[in-house]
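Case 353 in the screening queue. Each case pairs one protein sequence with one candidate compound; here the compound is MRU. For every case the pipeline is the same: read the inputs, emit a complex structure as tokens, and attach any notable structural observations.

Predict complex for case 353.
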Amino acid sequence: MQPTPTLVRDGDAVVILDQRRLPFHTERCRLESLEAVATAITTMQVRGAPLIGATAAFGVAIALHTDASDARLAHALATLAGTRPTAVNLHWALGRMRERLEGLSEDFRHEAAWEEAQAIACSDFETCAAIGHFGVELLQNLAQRRSGQVRVMTHCNAGWLATMGAGTALAPVYEAMARDIPVHVLVSETRPRNQGLLTQWELARAGVPHTLIADNAAGLLIARTEVDIVITGADRVAANGDTANKIGTYLKALAAFDHDVPFYIAAPLSTVDFSCRAGEEIPIEERDGDEVLTFTGMDERGQPGRLRLAPAETRVANPAFDITPARLISGIITEYGICAATALDSMRTNPPV
Ligand code: MRU
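Case 353 output:
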């Protein structure tokens, strides 16, 4: 389920959907240089852990267009690695590019870079489908236990806009729709960057029943037994299962735990950082305070605009992600199946075939 590709190759460039313009405008943007790709990731024209990884991989290919020397490759890898700190798929994808390209002669590097980037994109597409396949079982089971729609709460955007395929957290939802399992998605707005509005836009286009809620409404709805399951994506999962995801995820996990509502993370194994032993080792991105002090929307005449919510000199803290401890996570939906958050290592060493 990816009605509009998030990223496609166009000659020696890529064309992306500019996510800063959504949900009001569907605009494409051609990225023709390493700098343009790095800026697109930093400014969140592209966003979501798997899509960031794939975009960075294509960024390496673009960077090698006229110069495929060792120095240029090292510069491209370092530039892209510095764009965003938390989503580990970025480093995973750059690691794959390094491994494929470093030992190659310069003459073959440029073409090999495109091939590897394309392979990363294709595997993400398949990974999303597999996550949907395994995750839908949870929704199927809930549907059998209750009459009416299965009420799924999510956070941020972990749908097709965040990946090269159907998404991570939303892949089971799209699969449920395909199987006629009745679902209703509770979408939290996800201040300050409002990725929930991207989820709302996606779900509306796909005809998935949904309700947009303020972030702060999640606890009440969970307490009132109006939520059957919470599924979110992840930006980095530590070896012990502690999970970094968009700020606000932790509060949803706490409320879900307190009310015995299952809380699942949907993420590919490339989002697991086995070199990070626990959540406190995951770097948390701190973003510009202006994201909290302003709000971007559309006025009554359909004109996009930015409103100031508090004086510019206001002191702001704007951590972009939080850590949900493994003990609050019912399971992790991966492309190999669902496992306990504390059993990731066995999933890595013995992935079911
Ligand atoms: O800051 P963003 O928009 O890149 O953060 C995205 C998220 O936190 C997603 O929920 C996460 O990357 C999962 S993506 C499938």
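Case 353 observations:
- Residues 130-349 form a domain with the Rossmann fold fold (CATH 3.40.50.10470).
- The first strand starts at residue 7 and ends at 10.
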